[in-house]
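Dissemination and training. As part of the outreach component of the grant, students in the summer workshop were shown how a complex can be specified as a set of sequence lines and then modelled as a single object. The example used during the hands-on session is reproduced here so that future cohorts can follow it. Participants entered these lines:
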Amino acid sequence: MKNEQDWEFHMYIRAIILFGFMLLLFAFIVSGKINSYVSPRMVPFAYMAMIGFGLLGAVQMFRGTAKNMEEEMNCGCGIDHRPKGSPLAQFSLYLIFVIPVLAGLMIPEAALDTSVAKNRGVKYGSGIYSKPSPPKMENEKSNAFKIDADEYLKDPDGYIKKMEKNATKQAGVDESAAGSDDARAYYASLVNTLARTNKIIVTPNNFMEVMAAMDHDIRPFVGKQMEISGFVYRESGFKADQAVVARFAVECCIADASVYGVLMSSKDMKAYQDDAWIKATGVITKSVYNKHPIPLMKVQHLTRIKEPKDPYVYPDM
Amino acid sequence: MLFFALPQSFLQMNTIFVSILIEALPFVLIGVFIAGFIQMFITEDMVARIMPKNKVLSVLFASFVGIFFPSCECGIVPIVRKLAAKGVPLHAGIAFMLTGPIINPVVLFSTYVAFGSTWEMPLYRALGAIVVSVFVGLIIAFFYKGDGLKAFDAGHRHSHESLSIKEKIWETLKHAVDEFFSMGKYLVIGALIAACVQTYVKTSTLLSIGNGKVSSTLVMMALAFILSLCSEADAFIGSSFRSIFSTSSILAFLVFGPMVDIKNLLMMLGTFKTRFVLLVVGSVTLVVFLFSLLI
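and obtained this result:
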């Protein structure tokens, strides 16, 4: 009888844990907090998982009822299905499952900030996100400017050499690739559309597109006004009046978030700490980061803003 | 307010941890449902009929089956475990496990998008996955003696043929629950470790180590292991390294990550014998490394 009670206990605690996961997902979805964890295109999967956990929880609950217990105890396969191990081992097993539920429900979520950005390195301009292929890296006229500032600061010459070496390899790939014509056409039209306006307003929706377009060709953007918001990010080699206005871009979940931003300069920059959210309006100029052209925004107007409810931007597929 | 005392970095670590889980759980659930389905509806006879007897053919067959199953690396381990219990030979099961998360349409398409809508990278990636799985499958087929599975599942072969469809569905769900509890713990621990590493280790330093062809390939493989990204998202991260790393080392990142990373290593250790896992991980590492150097 003792065993039977034990087994029943396991049945119920497992049911509770499954319902716990369902509740966690339900709470995230209802409160909108789900957006702090995964990108919108993963949300349907969260719904699906919520239903799945509910179903499994109900199954498990039903297994624990007396009628079914008998069947569970002798399912006839000659295998003991009961959890093995000492009470302590069993306790820690369930603890492992309880931790994420409690961690999700009780510990407040934190938006990624500059400490994470420093760990990951920032991409100035687009670089990463490429619906069509980014332009060739090697020649000046294509104006690619993905830069890992950390690495650059450590060893400028070595870094540039590596950039050039890789770029040459990359060029080979790009030229042979079938889709690259489409890609170029896509970028050209993107650049055209954006460059037609005199003031480019960067919103969370077009953030990645603008970054990609400036990455493709900076020239049409030079002299344009731009309005952009994001958090302040600095690296150790920056001048006192320089900072990056940056956003995290999330593909699936925030574990894969990467940082994108535009370098800007303003005499008021000192007043803004790292991680402060700002809206900046200014004129795009072309700056050169050791042979690699990058956009530099000369800020005309700088204001502090509240951190947006959804701090991330999402590249759309 | 207890949590005001917690440092910001801890809160971020926790957020990344929960985020990895929220993203992975739906796919793990799909995995355990399929595992339960296999348990109840697939018989050893069926497996024997479909699976080629010849070792080489069965490895080849299993390497390509994954094209039809959109799965990711955390959902596939419980499936392989059930398949093995149904009499699928270990070399075929492992070949399926290695290619499944890479060569399915969803992952290949996201790789296509991430690499500028070109087919070269997804094709190399699929080729790499198949080459690795064939080699590793054959190594297991000819050099590994033993069943490789941890004891608890090896003898667990019910006879369910007598049950009605309704009963089978009920049993499928029950097995899915049990499977979730035996696999889920590794996922949780793996996600926790990955979140810690992402928060407290400066991965950009890692990048500055990789200068030569050999070291950059090793760095990218280490990065794939540490980041433990879902195979549907890793292409976007991989493509962001194009400016500083060679194509071949990014290929290594894309092929190695879905095969071996922190969370699925723990899941494998929970399913297979430790020595067997070491053999699989060791040979995968070696073959991925050599393959990417040749490309």
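Chain B touches chain A through 77 residues (CB under 8 Å). Students were then asked to discuss how this feature might be tested experimentally.
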